[in-house]
Write a structure and sequence with these properties.
Distance between the termini: 46 Å
Low-confidence stretches: 1-12, 344-353
Number of strands: 5
Helix content: 55-70%
Radius of gyration: 37 Å
Strand content: 5-15%
Number of helices: 12
Shape: elongated
Order of helices and strands: HHHHHHHHHHEHEEHEE
Length: 390
Amino acid sequence: MTTSRTQLPWVTGILARADGLVTALHTAFVVLVLASTVRYLTGHGFGDRAPWVLAGAGVLLATYAAYRVLPGRVWLGLVVAVWFGLVLLAPSFAWCAVPLSFVALRVLPFWPACVVVAGMVATTVVTWTRMTDRLDPTIVLGPVCVAVLAVSAYRALERDALARQALLDDLHAAQGDLADAQHQAGVLAERARLSREIHDSVAQGLSSINLLLQAAEREWDDRPGAARQHASQAAATARDGLDEVRRVVRDLAPADLVSGSLPDVLRQTCERLAEHSGVDVQVQVHGTPVALRPDVETALLRTARGALANVLEHAAATTAVVTLTYQPDAVVLDVRDDGRGLGVGSSDPDRGRGLAGIRERLQALGGTLVLESEPGEGTALAASVPLEQS
C-alpha cells in the first residue's frame, strides 16, 4: 500500500487506484483557487464582497487540507458545500469544479460520483449564465460535454482494470492449483520411493529371516549343525536389515545432520542464509549440548530453516537471532527478528501452512510451539522438545 492511499480517504471510487493523480489534483485545485481569487480582485477590486470572497477562499483551502483528519465522504461534502457558497459570491471559482470532479470520482462509487459531478456542472452553468445575463449554448453544453467525456473515459478505464484484475486472479488461482498438483505429485512419488525402499530392504530381509528360522526349527533336532548355520545366517540378515533401516532413516533426515552436530549445522545454515540476504543472522548456543534422537534434531533444524525462511521472505527484518538452549528437561530453539511482525501481510497462505507444519512436527515429538508477534515489533518463535522424548 502506498503512502498516498494510506493517508487519503480515496479508496472506493473508480480512480481510487490512480495514486499518481494525487499530486496533480492538489496542485491544480490550489492553483485554480488562487487564480480565481486574483481574477475576482482584478475585476472587482476590494469592494463590499471582497472580504467575503477572500474569507471563502481561505475556508475552501483549509477545508480541502483537512482530508487527513476527516472521513472521506464527510470531507468531500464539506468541500463541495463551501465551493458552492463561494461560487454564488464569485462565479470565477466555478473552474475549481474540474479538480473537484476528479476528487469525487476517487472518493465515491461511480453513480454517487456522477450525481455530485452533475450538481457541480449545473451550478457552473447557472452561475455563468447569471453572470452573462443571457443563455449561451457554449456555456451550457461545454461543461456538460467535458463532464460526460471525463466520466465515460474513466468508467471505461475502471472496467478494463476490473477485467485485468479478474485475469490476474484466475492466473494466481491456476498457479496455486499447479503448485498443489506438483506438491501432491511429489508426495506420491516420495511415498512410492519409500514403499520400494522398504520392500526391497526391510520386507525382503524379514522374509529371509523368517525362512531361515523356520528351516532352523525343522532341523533343530536332526541336524543341529545346519540349524545353527541357519540361525547364524538369520542373525547376519537381521544386522544387514538394521543397516538398511538406518540408511532409510538417514536419507529422510537433512543430509548435513549425518556428518555434523545440531549446533554446528545451525551455524552453517545461518551463515549460508546470511550470505544470500541482507539479514544479519546470529546463532547462540546455551547450556551443554547433549545427544538427541535424529528425528528430534531433524525437527529442530527444519523448524529453524522454516522460521528463517519466513523472516527472509516476509518480515523485512535486518537482524535475526537463533538461540539453541539445552535445559535440564528440554531443548529449546528460539528464532527472533526485528521485522514488521505477523500483523502485516499475515494472511499469506504459504506462510500459514509452514507454521502449521512446524507445529505438527513438534507435537508428534511431544513438543510445543509458541509464537509471539506485534505489528512493527518483530516476531519471536519458540520451539521446545522435552529431553525425555529424545
